[in-house]
Amino acid sequence: HLRPRGVLPHSELSFEAEAIGAEADASPSLLDPPPSGAPPWTVGLHYLLWPVKALMHLTIPDVMEGARRKAERHKSNPTEPLGVAALSAGSCVAWLIFNSLVMVTTLEKVGAILDIPDSVIGITISAVGTSIPVFVASSVAARQGLGNMAVSNAFASNTFNILVGLGLPWTLYCALVSEDGTYDGMSSGDGIVNSIVILAASLVLTVLLILQGGFVLRMWHARLMAAVYGLFLVYAVGRVYVLGLDNEEYEDNNDA
User: Fold this and answer.
1) DSSP for the chain, written as a single string
2) pLDDT tens by residue, 89-139
3) Would you state the pLDDT for residue 100?
4) What confidence tens digit (pLDDT) does each residue in 12-67 have?
5) Closest Cα to residue 237, out of 134, 129, 125, 108?
6) Which contacts (CB < 8 Å, 24+ apart) does range 68-73 have?
7) Is 0.85 topped by the overall pTM?
8) 67, 77, 84, 61: which is closest to 23 by C-alpha?
9) Each residue's pLDDT tens digit, 160-218
10) In the chain, what's the furthest Cα-to-Cα distance?
């Protein structure tokens, strides 16, 4: 008997529906309270953020639920609810943009109130905050055995940040705001050159570690990377508060 392309037999659809349902049930909802025995700060943070979680729960479609419903109707492959997946991905991107805007605006105000230079805010709290989605996505992929996806995600996110995250705003500013088509808001005193050199060295170190280990990552690799990042933070913050390399220019900008 012939069947339309992409339509699975009833037995396979039933199995897929059960598997998808089991996976969806195993994944906790955003609105579910923390498990018993969770630290008090986790419980408090959950209820503090509950309104935001509720909005995200309502505005981001559940891909697993859509796949399960599709499987139960026995119409097509339940692992390909493309419309729901596209809408869910779009909603996630919109939330990332909104949260990033709120975070950057908040950090600017906090830095101005506490007299913390933008360079320190950018390389510490802001950098960690914007990298959390990448960390979560890579962690999930690694736990599922998708090592190539986890590593590729980390590299691709940096490529996107540099080429699009910087390139697109600069292009829009030069095209729509700047009178002479240039952007002159940067200076070498902010440690940008040093940060670029450290970024390049970190990428080279990561590639060398992967090649040295035969594409097998080990615990000492992780510890070395964490130690290098710790040294970078000590250097970046120390050059401002100990050496005072950026303080003069920061104070001049504030006075202006």
Assistant:
1) ----TTPPPHHHHHHHHHHHHHHHHHSPPTTSPPPTT--HHHHHHHHHSHHHHHHHHHHS--HHHHHHHHHHTTSS-TT--HHHHHHHHHHHHHHHHHHHHHHHHHHHHHHHHHT--HHHHIIIIIHHHHHHHHHHHHHHHHHTT-HHHHHHHHHHHHHHIIIIIIHHHHHHIIIII-SSS------GGGTHHHHHHHHHHHHHHHHHHHHHTTS---HHHHHHHHHHHHHHHHHHHHHHHTS-TTHHHHHHHHH-
2) 889 889 888 888 888 888 888 888 888 777 778 778 888 877 887 888 888
3) 81
4) 445 444 544 545 455 667 788 888 888 888 889 889 989 988 998 889 887 776 55
5) 125
6) 68/17, 68/20, 68/21, 68/24, 71/13, 71/14, 71/16, 71/17, 71/20, 72/17
7) no
8) 67
9) 888 888 888 888 888 888 888 888 777 655 567 777 888 888 888 888 888 888 888 88
10) 80
Quickly tell me which residue has 């981001």 as its tokens: 60
Tokens of 117: 């230079």
